[in-house]
Automatic annotation (TrEMBL):
CC per GO annotation: cytosol
Annotated protein name in UniProt: NAD(P)H dehydrogenase (quinone)
Pfam families, per database record: FMN_red (PF03358)
Gene3D superfamilies associated with the record: 3.40.50.360
The enzyme's E.C. designation: 1.6.5.2
Annotated PANTHER family: CHROMATE REDUCTASE (PTHR30543), NAD(P)H-DEPENDENT FMN REDUCTASE LOT6 (PTHR30543:SF21)
Length: 80
């Protein structure tokens, strides 16, 4: 946290997102039926000028919580 704040410019806002509360990804739920937490995550990501993801290694990969947070917004809301 402090490294990103030190590296940022004075006029930069840094937000940390808590992804632990997101429900497990469910491909059957599409907008507008997505959970509110997912809608809020999408909004935060769409409003961001940049996204920095930092995580520790978990079984030679990323953590399940991070994968879940990537899975939700990786699917477009209007696929068809």
């Amino acid at each position: 946290m402090s490294t990103s704040q030190k590296a940022s410019r004075k006029n930069t806002d840094i937000k940390f997102l808590d992804i632990g509360h997101l429900p497990l990804y469910n491909e059957d739920l599409k907008a507008p039926d997505e959970p509110l937490e997912v809608q809020q995550l999408r909004k935060e990501l769409q409003e961001a000028d940049a996204i920095l993801i930092s995580t520790c290694q978990y079984n030679f990969s990323i953590s399940p919580a991070l994968k879940n947070a990537i899975d939700w917004p990786s699917v477009g809301v209007n696929e068809w």
